[in-house]
């Protein structure tokens, strides 16, 4: 059975990708590494949601709480705010590829390919670039087909569902209308 390391951004986004990968015969291991998530309590809610989904779906998850470092994220995107998503993807996917290579996984991928709000082509291209020289190969799959399934199941299971991508910038964009309407 081929082993795949799945970068997980949150519980709801992991449901459909885990199911699809398991249906394809992969032994799935999750990887929760998200230094972009702000604030810390939001990070903890998303981590706990990812762990709850993993338990329900019978997969192991590698959690890198000791590497939670929003300052690293801010340093990576400072003066690059217009292209911040690419740098955020790169930070998380580079670490995923490193762990996959060291852990002797056959493949690696990400739940970022599930969200209809992410820059799908940039994620796929980055994954293909990261597999060069890496023992684990990037597994491209458009998980967006499971969008409604992930929403419905996460609601049914009572998994924490966030309202913004994760970073301070996306939180501000999500809620800025509330300032205008106050």
UniProtKB/TrEMBL annotation:
EC number in record: 1.17.99.6
Q: Which InterPro entries is this protein grouped with?
A: QueH
Source organism: Desulfobaculum bizertense DSM 18034
- The answer to whether UniProt assigns keyword 4Fe-4S to this entry is yes
Molecular function via GO:
4 iron, 4 sulfur cluster binding; epoxyqueuosine reductase activity; metal ion binding
Domain of life from the UniProt record: Bacteria
Q: Which cysteines form disulfides?
A: 165-167
Q: What is this protein called?
A: Epoxyqueuosine reductase QueH
What is the enzyme's main class? oxidoreductase
Name the Pfam families for this protein. Answer: QueH
Q: What pathway or pathways are given for this protein in its record?
A: tRNA modification; tRNA-queuosine biosynthesis
Function per UniProt: Catalyzes the conversion of epoxyqueuosine (oQ) to queuosine (Q), which is a hypermodified base found in the wobble positions of tRNA(Asp), tRNA(Asn), tRNA(His) and tRNA(Tyr).
Which residues are recorded as binding [4Fe-4S] cluster? 9-10, 85, 88
| Keyword terms | 4Fe-4S, Disulfide bond, Iron, Iron-sulfur, Metal-binding, Oxidoreductase, Queuosine biosynthesis, Redox-active center, tRNA processing
Give the protein family.
Belongs to the QueH family.
- What is the catalytic activity of this protein? epoxyqueuosine(34) in tRNA + AH2 = queuosine(34) in tRNA + A + H2O
One biological process GO term for this chain? tRNA queuosine(34) biosynthetic process
């Amino acid at each position: 059975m081929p082993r795949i390391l799945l970068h997980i951004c949150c519980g709801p986004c992991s449901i459909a990708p885990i199911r699809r990968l398991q249906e394809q015969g992969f032994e799935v291991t999750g990887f929760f590494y998200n230094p972009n998530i702000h604030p810390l309590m939001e990070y903890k809610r998303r981590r706990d949601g990812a762990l709850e989904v993993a338990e329900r779906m019978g997969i192991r998850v590698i959690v890198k709480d000791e590497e939670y470092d929003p300052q690293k994220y801010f340093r990576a995107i400072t003066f690059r705010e217009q292209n911040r998503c690419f740098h955020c993807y790169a930070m998380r996917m580079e670490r995923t590829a490193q762990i996959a290579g060291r852990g002797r996984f056959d493949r690696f991928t990400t739940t970022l390919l599930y969200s209809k709000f992410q820059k799908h082509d940039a994620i796929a291209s980055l994954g293909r670039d990261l597999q060069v020289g890496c023992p684990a190969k990037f597994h491209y799959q458009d998980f967006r087909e499971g969008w409604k399934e992930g929403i419905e199941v996460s609601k049914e299971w009572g998994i924490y569902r966030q309202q913004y991508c994760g970073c301070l910038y996306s939180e501000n964009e999500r809620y800025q209308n509330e300032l205008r309407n106050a």
